[in-house]
Amino acid sequence: MKRIYLNEVATRDGFQIEPTFVPTDTKVALVDALSECGYAKIEVTSFTSPKAIPMLRDADEVMGRIRRVPGVEYTVLVPNKRGAERALEAKADELNLVMSVSETHNRANLRMSMADSFAALGDVIKLVDGRTPINISLSCAFGCPMEGDVPQQHVLDWAQRFCDIGVRGFTICDTTGMAHPVQVSRMVEALQGSVLKHRPELQLALHFHNTRGMGLANVLAGVQGGITRFDGSLGGLGGCPYAPGASGNISSEDAIHMLDAMGYDTGIDLDKLLGVARQMPDIVGHEVPGQVAKAGRITDLHPAPPETTPA
Amino acid sequence: MKRIYLNEVATRDGFQIEPTFVPTDTKVALVDALSECGYAKIEVTSFTSPKAIPMLRDADEVMGRIRRVPGVEYTVLVPNKRGAERALEAKADELNLVMSVSETHNRANLRMSMADSFAALGDVIKLVDGRTPINISLSCAFGCPMEGDVPQQHVLDWAQRFCDIGVRGFTICDTTGMAHPVQVSRMVEALQGSVLKHRPELQLALHFHNTRGMGLANVLAGVQGGITRFDGSLGGLGGCPYAPGASGNISSEDAIHMLDAMGYDTGIDLDKLLGVARQMPDIVGHEVPGQVAKAGRITDLHPAPPETTPA
Q1: In the A/B pair of chains, how many CB contacts fall below 8 A?
Q2: Going from the N-terminus, what domains does chain A have, and what CATH number goes with each?
Q3: For residue B146, which of A27, A304, B53, B280 is within the disulfide window of CB 3.0 to 4.6 Å?
Q4: Res. B311 pLDDT band, cuts 50 70 90
Q5: pLDDT tens across A134-160, in order?
Q6: ipTM for the complex?
Q7: How many CB atoms lie within 10 A of CB A178?
Q8: A302 in contact with B at a CB cutoff of 8 Å?
Q9: Which of the four pLDDT bands, split at 50, 70 and 90, describes residue A245?
Q10: Annotation marks residue A240 as catalytic
Q11: Is B70 an 8 Å CB contact of chain A?
Q12: A1 touches chain B (CB under 8 A)
């Protein structure tokens, strides 16, 4: 059984766009519950300015109060040096940096050019100076909702530049659900043939959204290509302002349920995870897109109607 | 570009479980709109007893009033000889028979044993006597919500028995969304190595539900295995009484959008289809699960916010 490593991003990527503040106690309890499910990594929160993302204004308190389970890495999003200092102070196990590989999306999302982002994130890496592993998440790697196609070579080049300045791993993000399986297969093959070729120890993760229903098909293309690390968001929380009404991130439990059925070792206690997933509608105050929490596992059987018993 | 053939089942498999009767005029207009989209086949309705499926009590009238577009096959579900007579009278291009490969599900769904179903459907095939092509849909081929696992050999055996008595094609149905991609790959390979080996002209189609989010991943596994025929339901209409709140059939437009992006020739005018898909919530009076109708195609771009323009 091949091992797959799951990174849960609901409390960061999911919560950050929720309209209603999730109380700190609830966040801590949720991360603690997730810690018991077998994740390799949990992206707990974001050390961004509280003005930029008010939903995550309690980042320091959440990181201080969660119960750390050995074997689980607690990562945090860090946009700049100030965030990195807070993350180091909070003893995060990893810092996750973000840059979009689309100039227009980077300016829309981070209010600066890609060149400025790269310089600023280089400063963060220098500041951290090897004390904590760093991951770079490359947004819009499969297309930009404003620019359209993003050339694959462009993604490879940016991944290489970050790997050259000292990240431990990188996440190729389909930020707005534009990737399709053939594109995923080509991207994975190209990364394996370039950036990863002489640095196989680099951690490569894929981050998909289900905006157009292709999320789990893209996960399938990823595992078929040999990828072992995936981001997911419990309940399918998260999303994209350009697709109102559509699904957000892939649902962790749906992806894990599929990988589990396919015979992969996800390390996850799926029944426990579904128990947590079923709390999500109450936590965020609305329905969530995840399907398995509603439908049950494929192994959950139902009683036959009495009249169908053979006479 | 490899050709993929799409069979639209929304007006039969979708409508049959809707709580509110869709007016005959609306059904006819919908089928006529679908006929302009490039489908290979449309499953228009079901010649079942009006008492069993009141939603489709206007089957004869719908079949009589739709505009036939050359190149599109108009198929109908037929449960018995009475239905077959009505279908022949209505000049259907194909009769679609249904049997579950799970004894318990067949009894629950069709109120008879599989042996009785096979005998009754054999009588239908004799009655039709080659005048119209016949398809057999094998339900629960990837698992039964009551019995659980259905052995693959069992599915192969039933497919073989129906092929031996004169069907033109067969549809392997994941009736309640229990299939996963590895299972689909194995099933396809096994069918190609047995039933289809000496009868390559037999039409093999796959019918998936998205109950647990795996629908398009299963389509991907299918096309990777060389399958060229798929059922889909506009908007993702349809479903399963055992999974309240979960998705139904795979959404035709989401599946076609993915196949189109991957470079397959689906024969479908996707923009026209999305126009029809966007009418579905009004037609059935509730939201539908299809994603692309909400999110737009991956090629639909959005304007950049003005402040992101480089100074």
Answers
A1: 162
A2: 5-308 (3.20.20.70)
A3: A304
A4: very low
A5: 999 999 999 999 999 999 999 999 999
A6: 0.97
A7: 27
A8: yes
A9: confident
A10: yes
A11: no
A12: no
